[in-house]
Amino acid sequence: MEFHRKDTRLKHFRYKGHFVYSLTICTHRKTTYFDNDSLVEKLTELLCQVAEKHDFSIIVYCFMPDHLHLLIQGGENAKLVTFIKEYKQISAYRFKKNHGSQLWQKGYYDHVVREDEDVMEAARYILNNPVRKGLVSNFWQYPYLGSFVYDIEEGFELR
């Protein structure tokens, strides 16, 4: 029997330009990889480089133990599918070379943030993930989250 993975992309949406996206990218078999300072630092540096190359701003990121949350905004030339494909491809190649195993599951989950949705509320939700999972009592205590746009300690008070 052949298994066909459901396409989670919107059929008539181009995923290009000035849109804000909330993304979740899971590790292969939900394996805990993101509890390693060195690995997360390398993945964060790569994320910054690839985002800049593809005209994306990283509003917030949060490496949970077995998945990555992103809230990103595209610029004029931004293409979401190309950005994510390159980030996953380079990071997976480097990870396999150094660790001998697969890093990411296939695909990712996306949500196009609508105009009537509060981007800062979406950012606070992502930043508060480690608190909801009981990893820390305040998000700023969690070492694997941040923003390439804002000072998270000043701009994202939790309500």
Question: Can you tag this structure with a few keywords?
Answer:
disordered N terminus; alpha+beta; 159 residues; Alpha-Beta Plaits; 5 helices
Walkthrough of the structure:
By secondary structure, this protein is an alpha+beta fold. The chain has one domain: Alpha-Beta Plaits (2-Layer Sandwich), CATH 3.30.70. The chain has helices at residues 37-53, 80-99, 119-127, 129-132, 152-155; strands at 20-26, 56-64, 67-74, 109-113, 145-146. A 5-stranded antiparallel β-sheet has the order 4-1-3-2-5, sandwiched between helices. A hairpin with a 2-residue loop joins strand 2 and strand 3 (67-74). Helix 1 (37-53) packs antiparallel against helix 2.
- Largest sheet: number of strands, sense, barrel closure: 5 strands, antiparallel
* Number of helical segments with 4 or more residues: 5
The fourth-level CATH homologous superfamily is Transposase IS200-like
The CATH topology is: Alpha-Beta Plaits
Instruction: Point out poorly predicted stretches.
Output: 1-7
Backbone CA Rg: 16 Å
What is the general shape? globular
SSE topology string: EHEEHEHHEH
Helix percent band: 25-40%
CATH architecture: 2-Layer Sandwich
